Structure prediction request, 585 residues.
Amino acid sequence: MPPPTDLRPFLNRRNFLALGSVGLGAVALRPAKARELGGPRQPYGDRSPFEKTVRTFGASPTPGTGASRTPLQDLHGTITPSALHFERHHSGIPHLDPNRHELLLDGLVDRPLVFSLRDLRRLPTVSRLHFIECAGNSGREHLGRPGETAQISHGLLSNTEWTGVTLRTLLNEVGVQPKARWLIAEGADASKPSRSIPLAKALDDVLVAFAQNGEALRPAQGYPLRLVVPGWEGNTHIKWLGRILASEKPYMTRDEAAYYTDLMPDGKARWFTFVMEAKSVITAPSGGQQLDGPGFYQVSGLAWSGRGRITRVEVSTDEGKSWTDAELNGPVVPKAATRFSLPWKWDGSETSLQSRCTDDTGYIQPTRQQLLAARGINATDHYNGIKAWFVHRDGKVSHA
Amino acid sequence: MLKYTLLASGVLAALVAAVAAVADAADAAPPRHDVGRPATASDVRKHGFLVGPTGEGLPRGSGSAIEGRTIYLERCASCHGARGEGMPHFPPLVGGQGSLAGPKPVATVGSFWPYATTVWDYINRAMPYQAAGTLRPDDVYAVTAYVLAMNGIVREDARLDEKTLPQVRMPNRDGFVSDPRPDVK
Prediction:
């Protein structure tokens, strides 16, 4: 029995001719409605008005302070559009004039120097893909209050092509003295956030970036200059970068000697816990989405590791009973988000979807139970546990 | 023939030495681009104070907890509470000592922060929230002294300056450990 839209039974010769003459006659008699002429060119493009996905954030008495989250469940590939990169500010987004903004490098250096943006653009530049993840991303998962959507649970993660000068290049210009072991980086926004970063990391892969996905940084991402500290907690990637001071020891700033530390059950806190460990999340199907009924779906998500390259992502579609290797959609870049996918046929029964990744150090993404056993309940930063989405019989996908 | 061989080996030795010298130079430092201008004292001053745990970068000055109380009530209490107890969205500055290993840990300047210099540095760079940069160094010494006094860390009439502030021993000074991760294997 063919479906009702199947026209084959009508396409014998007699019916076809009759249909043709009626159809042509009708069209010829009535003036055709012209196809609508499209809109004008635009100097700076907008997305389609049909596309509505946005960053989300809660109300606050200090609107310039706090976080907004990337809608991971609505994005494709690995690059986070600049307008949707997550935000975390401590005293609002400053309005900095690139013709006046300067970067000072001083402290234990032979030649303290000031660089303008024009100076920096003359130097050799590099472009590199890297994720930035806030240390507090998924903290509520740690507390046992799983996020309803991928945006709520994992949206303090974004992935960008950054362009700038390597910090190594700038340090070579100023000549770091042998006694220096740390660099103190400082922002030029109202609260001037500051962090101490080991010199060894700076010489390895840190960037002083002025561009994001091919254009100047967005103001919310540090315009005109920010630090990118690949794989390390977002707070170290100082935005609106104004000064770097070379020092023998760390300066014990608020954001390293009080905040961004992890309190253990014995009352001791871990500090300088820089690396964001290997983590993954399924973005489709994910919490808040609706399946159209049993049948084929592609399971897809993101995996990343602050220690290096993602080598494997396994997906379970049967509540963790069995795990199947997902495909890594290359290129797989170290300290950058990797898209993974797995074909899946939903049989209509209740189940859960989970992903777990492995990086090139052999580290395997842990479960929440393993993290709680190692760290207790209070260490909510740097959480990287496996995330489950629950598929219900009616096709709803939820966090619980 | 011998002469030529000696000459050739001499040239070879010189070449090896030259290559080694270039390699050494490359290891030491690549050539500079000489971009950027020398920083002046005023460039450094413009950025303000960057304060380390043994008092690096602290400006000369002083302030007492008694002076600090007046400034605190005027400029800080509207968010952090009259006694440093905090408010929704604004963290408490006082209390929590002895709570860190318990079921409800409260991390404040008094219970958690390991260095008094961090308190001075943070107040100086970021507070008051809506008017950062308006406190003078003496004001910052005074407010720091008052916050520490509210926590019982210094006396209620204590006066702090660039010499004495780094010597204040915070209760949780030994409360931190280095990163042992990966801690799940």
Chain A touches chain B through 68 residues (CB under 8 Å). The helical segments of chain A are 13-29, 117-122, 139-142, 150-154, 167-174, 199-205, 254-257, 368-375.
